[in-house]
TrEMBL record:
<dbReference type="InterPro" id="IPR008265">
    <property type="entry name" value="Lipase_GDSL_AS"/>
</dbReference>
<dbReference type="Pfam" id="PF13472">
    <property type="entry name" value="Lipase_GDSL_2"/>
</dbReference>
<dbReference type="InterPro" id="IPR036514">
    <property type="entry name" value="SGNH_hydro_sf"/>
</dbReference>
<dbReference type="GO" id="GO:0006629">
    <property type="term" value="P:lipid metabolic process"/>
</dbReference>
<feature type="domain" description="SGNH hydrolase-type esterase">
    <location>
        <begin position="6"/>
        <end position="168"/>
    </location>
</feature>
<dbReference type="InterPro" id="IPR013830">
    <property type="entry name" value="SGNH_hydro"/>
</dbReference>
<dbReference type="InterPro" id="IPR051532">
    <property type="entry name" value="Ester_Hydrolysis_Enzymes"/>
</dbReference>
<protein>
    <submittedName>
        <fullName>Arylesterase</fullName>
    </submittedName>
</protein>
<dbReference type="GO" id="GO:0004622">
    <property type="term" value="F:phosphatidylcholine lysophospholipase activity"/>
</dbReference>
Amino acid sequence: MKRILFFGDSLTAGYGLMASQAYPGLIQQKLLEHGHAYTAINAGLSGDTTAGGVHRIERWLDQPIAIFVLALGANDGLRGIPARETSQNLQEIINKVKKKCPDAKILLSGMEIPAIVPGRYAAEFRVLFRELALRNNIHFLPFLLEGVVGMRHLNLPDGIHPNAEGHKQLAAHTWSVLKELL
């Protein structure tokens, strides 16, 4: 059975939800429904940053991966980590995956800082994902939280983490790109 590794933060982990309600679990259901022989592995870690991801990626690469879904960066944005640093960390993760699993297809899930954040940071942060995808010639999902962020009915009471309905949207966005890689 081929493996799809979802490597991310609390958005991937499904903060506040059962694993089956998080978007990687929902993707696993879609894979089964469509007869695809893949196992979706949820390597989401709440609170993780791209720097943390650089340090923990190695342990997930000891078995072959057919598809690697990289969904880190939200916590970098929330903490105001310079876009250049976030980009360098994501590049290092991509490099490690390419070296250890050279046949793996890579899907980068983009993040955005809300437009209400003043200054250049939001724009720099948004563009870093697109630039990484182009530079590495990898598949790209522009914004994982599109249509979910800021929508009260799709988020937990904290207003940050998607609820079960919100994760259905994340799964739909991810599936729209992922299905082409199967």
